[in-house]
């Protein structure tokens, strides 16, 4: 696996996410509602719900907001959202995957298309870039929360069934097969590790440097997509600056 560091990107975008926390909570509430509606309100028997609840806690979403979304799913609400994926290219030819949860596909498709075209990108057909990404489990352990050194961490990750460990000064990043993600996560928690991030994600097989003269446009495109109320996740194959 390449040295692509999601943690670097997560930290880099954290302040921007904090600034629009209300919108982030609104999106998470929608994901919690759908997970509880389709698989039941008990996270111990609904892996999808537990996953999005973990995501909500990592975003510091209040417990009341989480429970409100679950109770709404238990009620008679007839709200329904479709999961839709859009694929395209950002400035510089960087592959982009966009996951959305929407109650109006036409509205969302139009908004995503506008975000691409106004910011130097192009929306592609289904399958145009998805083959360049792999679904993986992704876990981060902040090094300030553990005394484990890299050797101990590697041993525990391999014993738990993880595929890959990447180490930086401030974090251990662990990648797993999507199917074994839950068991790896649970094993690491049982071993006493505090997980800063635990999620299923899309990891690019290869990364593409964003040309210097395209970086501002590229960032505007990602911001426009993330600002869309219907968009849940934006994945890109952009190389981190320290990979250039």
UniProtKB/TrEMBL annotation:
Protein name in UniProt: Probable transcriptional regulatory protein FC20_GL000039
NCBIfam families noted in UniProt: PRK00110.1, PRK12378.1, YebC/PmpR family DNA-binding transcriptional regulator
SUPFAM superfamilies on file: YebC-like
Ranges of residues in domain TACO1/YebC-like second and third: 81-236
Keywords: Cytoplasm, DNA-binding, Transcription, Transcription regulation
GO biological process: regulation of DNA-templated transcription
Superkingdom of origin: Bacteria
Any one Pfam family match given in the protein's UniProt record, by short name: Transcrip_reg
Native organism: Lactobacillus equicursoris DSM 19284 = JCM 14600 = CIP 110162
Region entry Disordered, spans: 1-22
Subcellular location(s) per record: Cytoplasm
Protein family according to the UniProt entry: Belongs to the TACO1 family.
Species classification: Bacteria, Bacillati, Bacillota, Bacilli, Lactobacillales
Chief subcellular location: cytoplasm
GO MF annotation terms: DNA binding
InterPro entries per record: Integrase-like_N (IPR017856), TACO1_YebC-like_2nd/3rd_dom (IPR048300), TACO1_YebC_N (IPR049083), Transcrip_reg_TACO1-like (IPR002876), Transcrip_reg_TACO1-like_dom3 (IPR026564), YebC-like (IPR029072)
Domain TACO1/YebC-like N-terminal: 5-75
Coiled coil: none
GO CC, any one term: cytosol
């Amino acid at each position: 696996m390449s040295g692509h560091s999601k943690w670097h990107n997560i930290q880099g975008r954290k302040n921007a996410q904090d600034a629009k926390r209300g919108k982030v909570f609104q999106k998470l509430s929608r994901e919690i509602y759908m997970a509880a509606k389709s698989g039941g309100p008990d996270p111990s028997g609904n892996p999808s719900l537990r996953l999005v609840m973990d995501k909500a806690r990592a975003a510091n979403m209040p417990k009341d907001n989480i429970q409100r979304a679950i109770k709404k799913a238990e009620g008679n609400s007839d709200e329904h959202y479709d999961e839709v994926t859009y694929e395209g290219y950002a400035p510089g030819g960087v592959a982009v995957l966009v996951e959305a949860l929407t109650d109006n596909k036409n509205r969302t498709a139009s908004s995503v298309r506008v975000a691409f075209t106004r910011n130097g990108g192009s929306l592609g057909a289904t399958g145009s870039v998805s083959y360049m990404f792999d679904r993986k489990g992704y876990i981060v352990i902040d090094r300030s929360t553990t005394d484990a050194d890299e050797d101990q961490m590697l041993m525990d990750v391999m014993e738990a069934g993880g595929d890959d460990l990447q180490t930086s000064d401030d974090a251990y990043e662990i990648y797993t097969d999507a199917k074994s993600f839950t068991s790896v996560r649970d094993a690491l928690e049982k071993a006493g590790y505090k997980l800063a991030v635990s999620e299923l994600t899309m990891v690019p097989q290869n990364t593409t440097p964003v040309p210097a003269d395209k970086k501002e446009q590229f960032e505007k495109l990602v911001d426009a997509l993330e600002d869309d109320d219907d968009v849940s996740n934006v994945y890109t194959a952009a190389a981190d600056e320290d990979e250039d």
